[in-house]
Amino acid sequence: MRVDVNAPAWHGQRWAARTALAAAALAVLLPLGYGGLDGVLLLAAGLAGGAVTAAAVWWTLTRRGPARWLAAVLAAVTPTVVVVLFVVTLGWVLVLSPVLWAVAVWSGRYALRSTGTRPRRMKEHRARSVRRPFLLMNPRSGGGKVERFGLREKAERLGARVVLLDPEEHQDVTALARAAVAEGADLLGVAGGDGTQALVAAVAAEHDLPFLVVCAGTRNHFAMDLGLDRADPAACLDALTDGVELRVDLGFAADHPFVNNASFGAYAAVVQSPAYRDDKIGTTLELLPDLLTRQRGPRLTARIDATTLDGPQAVLVSNNAYRTDDPVGLGRRERLDSGLLGILGVKVDSAAEAAALLLDPDPEGLAVLSAREVIVGADRPEIEVGVDGEALILPTPVHCRIVPGALRVHVPRKRPGVPEAQPRLNWRQLRKLAATAGRA
Q1: Which one of 14, 71, 86, 159 has the lowest number of neighbouring Cβ atoms within 10 Å?
Q2: Among 412, 417, 408, 415, CA closest to 201
Q3: Nearest to 432 by CA among 108, 29, 1
Q4: How many Å from the N-terminal Cα to the C-terminal Cα in the chain?
């Protein structure tokens, strides 16, 4: 196929690529040229400062007593000193260089928007009407959002049967959902946290029923990646009358479903502590030194196809991959229908490795993978697992898998949507695009 690169669109992309390359070069060369030898030394000081800061954070997390406080002071003071050095040495250049870099990033992404690097969006399907929707609502979730936003009243006006969970006693939400299906419910929904969402979602998937997410939890990560309006949980109920259907994957750790992730290692061990709910920071700082230095906790392994991660301190298995290449998009998933688990493994055993994790573009201590299945093993018969924030103890090995398109999620037709993921900056591709001329 022949593409006319002299067409207006390609002409604009070509010049955007050239602008990106020129702006990036100026952003780097201007401080060096303005500062001369001082600029070169300042760059070295910046890199050294980053390494020292990362090492100090590692010491803060792995030490106790006076050593921890000294390391914390070093972690705070080092970047401050580096910033002051940059301001004193570069002056106005310190303002212009980031502006040039912003121009480079914007122009580069603009140039790459039509080159096939953008991810495919989740497809919307027609949502069939429902006659007997059933919703579980947790009145305590999200600090009382169910009452604050009048969720029960609106759901009942729209014809739904609503059951409020009793905050004073434990209730089996899976059993409640199964009972509702037996009584003829043709849609299951939850107004609550992601852990409750996952349990009811599994029942909906098992019976091929549509599922409704009402973002009444604290963080609502699943709702965020569905593009729902987390600031207005009541708007989620519009899906009952004017909705579309998304086919979404569902993850499992052993037989336990998750809509977001299952975590193993340090974080999973911390959330098991009875003191964690009342004092998250204090409990984390108390337990991390032993967990990160391997004096406590299991030694993990994770088998992903032909790859084996040996001895990571933490493994995160997610229902579709989290974005890791864009600081703005960290914690988000571009889509929920790829049919693949995302796997993040972290292994850091020293301050030097912590510094490499920050400065190295491809650090050995960080594994970013994707697969249909993951098997997490350990040197003990049972391990702690955090499944969508719920603390569990599971027998090893733990088999994690994903069921593609298991969930038929109904969402409002009018919703904020998921912010469009920007193309990954590929400087080699930009150089080729900038040099393109004539017909290709």
Answers
A1: 159
A2: 408
A3: 108
A4: 9
The C-alpha atoms of residue 246 and residue 260 are separated, in whole angstroms, by 16
pLDDT at 429: 84
Paired tokens of 156: 């009942």
Alpha helices in 207-296 (DSSP H): 221-226, 266-271, 280-292
Cα separation, 223 vs 353, whole angstroms: 35
320 with 336: CB under 8 angstroms?
Answer: yes
- Could you give the angle at the alpha carbon of 244 between the alpha carbons of 240 and 248, nearest 5°? 110
Q: What is the DSSP code string of 141-197?
A: GGGTHHHHTTHHHHHHHTT-EEEE--TTS---HHHHHHHHHHTT-SEEEEES-HHHH
pLDDT at position 51 over 80: yes
CA distance 83 to 94: 10
Locate tokens 């500062």: which residue?
A: 35
Residue 133 and residue 240 in contact, taking contact as beta carbons nearer than 8 Å: yes
pLDDT value at position 428? 83
Amino acid at site 316: L
> What whole-number distance in Å separates Cα of residue 331 and Cα of residue 419?
13
- pLDDT computed for residue 91 by the predictor: 81
* Dihedral, CA of residue 68, residue 73, residue 76 and residue 77, to nearest 10: -150
State how far the Cα of 398 lies from the Cα of 303, in Å rounded to an integer.
11
Token pair 């084996």 in the structure block, residue: 308
Which residues, in sequence order, are CB contacts of 395 under 8 Å at separation 6+?
A: 254, 381, 382
pLDDT value of residue 1 = 36
